[in-house]
Design brief:
The chain is α+β, with helices and mostly antiparallel strands and about 375 residues long. It has 10 helices and 14 strands. The chain has an 8-stranded antiparallel beta sheet, with helices on both faces. A two-stranded antiparallel sheet has the order 3-8. Strand 13 and strand 14 form a beta hairpin. Helix 2 runs antiparallel to helix 9. The protein is globular, with a radius of gyration of 20 Å.
C-alpha cells in the first residue's frame, strides 16, 4: 500500500523545474521566430529566482530600420492592467480599498450622474440598471463586471451590464476604467503619480509612464499590423489603467521580477491565486456561453490569469492591439518568468514556442488565450 501511495504522489507531483534558457538559446529562438512569422521587432526578458537574468532585443523599431533596443519605448498594452492591479493590492493592504466593497461607495454621487467621459467611461448609460451599485474591485480585476470590453464594442456604442456582476468571467477594459474612476474621483488619488512613487521610481523604471512624455520620441517603436502595414506609435494623452502604459523591455522586466518575488506586497499570492473559475472556450469574444465545466487549472486572478501546469502553479497576462503583441508568463516555483514585447502583432504566433523555449512546458492555455492564431476572426482590443 505504501508503494502504491508513493507512486500516486509521484504521478501527481509537478515535473522537475527545468533551468531557464540561456541568452544564446533565447536569441536563436527569437531570430527563428521572426523569420517564420515575418515579425519585424521583438524583445525578450528572462527572470530567474525573481531576478532579471537577461534582456535582449531583435529587429527594427520603425520602418526606417532603426534598431529596437532595450530602452526603446514600446506599448505595454494590457500589461498595464497588471501594473494597476499591483497598485490596487497595495491600497488594499493599506486599508484604503476593500476588494469586496462596491466601488459605488467610494463616490460622492450615484455613478450615472457623472455622465459619459472620453477618459473614464460611459457611466451615464447605466442609469436604468441599478446593478452598477454592486460592482466591486474584485469583480473588476477578475473581469466579471458584466461589461463589454469597451462600450464601443456594443452594437449601439452604449455601455450596459450583460450579466449579474460577479457571476462569470468576461474580459473588460471598461471595468478597469471604473475602478480607476473610483480611485481618482472617490479617493482623490492620481494613478500615474501613485505608480511613479510606489513602483516606477523605486524600481528604476525611468522610461515607463501611463501618459505620453515628449522625451519618448527619441527612441520610439512604431508597430506592424497583421497585413504588414506600419502603424505609428500612439502618443497617449490620458492615463488609462486599462492600457495606456508606455515602457521598455528593460523597465518591464524589472516589474516582472519584482512581481514574482512579491515586491511591495505582504500577500502577493492573494493577487495571483486562482479566484474565479473560467468556463468560456476562449478569452474572446465576450459573452460566450459557458462550457459544461470550468476549464481545469484555469481561473482569473487579480489582474492576471492563474493556471496550473506541469511545473505547478503560475500566472500570466497578455497585451494586444492591431500592431502589438505582449505576454508575461511566470512560474511560482523557482520564481521564473519570461516577458515578451513585440511591436509587430504577427509575433504572437510564436509566443507559445518562445515561452516553451525559455521556461519549458508551462501549461499556459494558449488555445484559450489566442484562438485567433488558428481562426480568421478579427482580433479584439485588450
Amino acid at each position: 500500500m505504501r508503494a502504491i501511495l508513493a507512486m500516486a504522489a509521484t504521478a501527481l507531483a509537478p515535473a522537475a523545474t527545468p533551468p531557464v534558457a540561456n541568452a544564446e538559446t533565447v536569441a536563436t529562438a527569437a531570430r527563428a521566430a521572426m523569420a517564420r512569422t515575418g515579425a519585424k521587432g521583438l524583445a525578450i526578458a528572462v527572470i530567474d529566482d525573481g531576478r532579471v537574468a537577461s534582456v535582449q532585443t531583435f529587429g527594427a523599431r520603425n520602418a526606417a530600420g532603426a534598431p529596437l533596443t532595450p530602452r526603446t519605448i514600446m506599448y505595454g498594452a494590457s500589461l498595464t492592467k497588471t501594473v494597476f492591479a499591483w497598485l490596487v493590492m497595495q491600497l488594499v493592504e493599506e486599508g484604503r480599498v476593500d476588494l469586496d466593497k462596491p466601488i459605488a461607495t467610494m463616490l460622492a454621487k450615484p455613478l450615472p450622474e457623472y455622465g459619459n467621459s472620453d477618459r473614464y467611461g460611459n457611466w451615464g448609460d447605466l442609469s436604468g440598471d441599478p446593478r452598477w451599485r454592486t460592482i466591486t474591485p474584485r469583480m473588476v480585476l477578475t473581469h466579471s463586471t458584466g461589461f463589454a470590453n469597451f462600450a464601443d464594442d456594443e452594437p449601439d456604442g452604449k455601455l450596459r451590464i450583460r450579466f449579474d456582476p460577479g457571476a462569470r468571467y468576461s474580459y473588460s477594459g471598461e471595468g478597469v476604467m471604473l475602478l480607476q474612476f473610483g480611485l481618482e474621483q472617490g479617493l482623490g488619488l492620481d494613478v500615474q503619480a501613485e505608480l511613479e512613487r510606489r513602483l516606477f521610481a523605486p524600481l528604476g523604471m525611468n522610461d515607463t509612464s501611463l501618459i505620453w512624455r515628449p522625451a519618448f520620441a527619441a527612441d520610439l517603436a512604431d508597430g506592424w499590423k497583421a497585413d504588414g502595414s506600419v502603424e505609428p506609435h500612439d502618443e497617449r494623452s490620458k492615463v488609462r489603467a486599462a492600457g495606456s502604459m508606455d515602457t521598455t523591455i528593460a523597465d518591464l522586466a524589472k516589474f516582472a521580477a519584482a512581481l514574482v518575488r512579491g515586491y511591495g506586497l505582504k500577500r502577493r499570492a492573494a493577487m495571483t491565486a486562482p479566484l474565479l473559475p473560467i468556463r468560456t472556450a476562449s478569452r474572446f469574444p465576450n459573452f460566450q456561453p459557458d462550457t459544461a465545466k470550468p476549464i481545469p487549472g484555469l481561473a482569473a486572478g487579480l489582474g492576471v490569469i492563474a493556471f496550473n501546469g506541469p511545473q505547478g502553479p503560475g500566472f500570466y497576462k497578455g497585451g494586444h492591439n492591431d500592431s502589438t503583441g505582449n505576454t508575461m508568463v511566470c512560474i511560482e516555483r523557482g520564481r521564473r518568468c519570461v516577458l515578451i514585447l513585440a511591436n509587430d502583432v504577427r509575433a504572437e504566433a510564436a509566443f507559445p514556442g518562445l515561452v516553451r523555449t525559455v521556461l519549458g512546458d508551462t501549461g499556459v492555455p494558449y488555445a484559450w488565450e489566442y484562438p485567433q492564431l488558428t481562426a480568421t476572426a478579427a482580433q479584439p482590443r485588450s
